[in-house]
Amino acid sequence: MNLTDIETALQEALLPTTLVVEDESLLHQGHWQGPSGIVTHIRVLATSPRFLNTGRLEQHRLVNTILKPFFSKGLHAAKLTLHAPQDS
């Protein structure tokens, strides 16, 4: 699992107009020791029409559902900043 895999999954599921996924694993060294070379902490900024007419909790649930396979492979935390197109 790498950052590209995560970006691809989010891109395919959300069809975002904006998508930025950053690996923040190095910022958390010593906090949580995942497998070596694995992305453990990410920051996601996304604007997607899938978020239209949804609340923040529903948006986060959707993205966490997309990320669920990655959590089982070593991803430990995801900081999410999500917007519908009219919000950005």
Model description:
With 88 residues, the chain is an alpha+beta fold. The chain has one domain: 2-Layer Sandwich (GMP Synthetase, Chain A, domain 3). Helix content is 32%, strand content 23%. The chain has helices spanning 3-14, 56-71, and strands spanning 18-23, 41-47, 77-83. It has a three-stranded mixed β-sheet with strand order 1-2-3, covered by helices on one side. Helix 1 (3-14) crosses helix 2. The radius of gyration is 13 Å and the shape is elongated.
Which structural class do you get from the secondary structure elements?
alpha+beta
In CATH terms, what is the architecture? 2-Layer Sandwich
Strand content is 15-25%
Number of domains: 1
Rg over C-alpha atoms, rounded to the nearest angstrom: 13 Å
**Oligomerization category of the chains in this entry:** single chain
Rough shape? Answer: elongated
In N-to-C order, the SSE pattern is HEEHE
For this structure, the CATH topology is: GMP Synthetase, Chain A, domain 3
For the record, what is the CATH homologous superfamily label?
A: BolA-like
Count every helix, treating DSSP H or I runs of 4 or more residues as helices: 2
The CATH first-level class comes to Alpha Beta
Extract low-pLDDT stretches. Answer: none
Helix content: 25-40%
Major beta-sheet overview = 3 strands, mixed
- Would you report the number of β strands? 3
**End-to-end Cα distance:** 30 Å
Read across the widest sheet, the strand sequence of neighbours is 1-2-3
Overall average residue pLDDT:
90
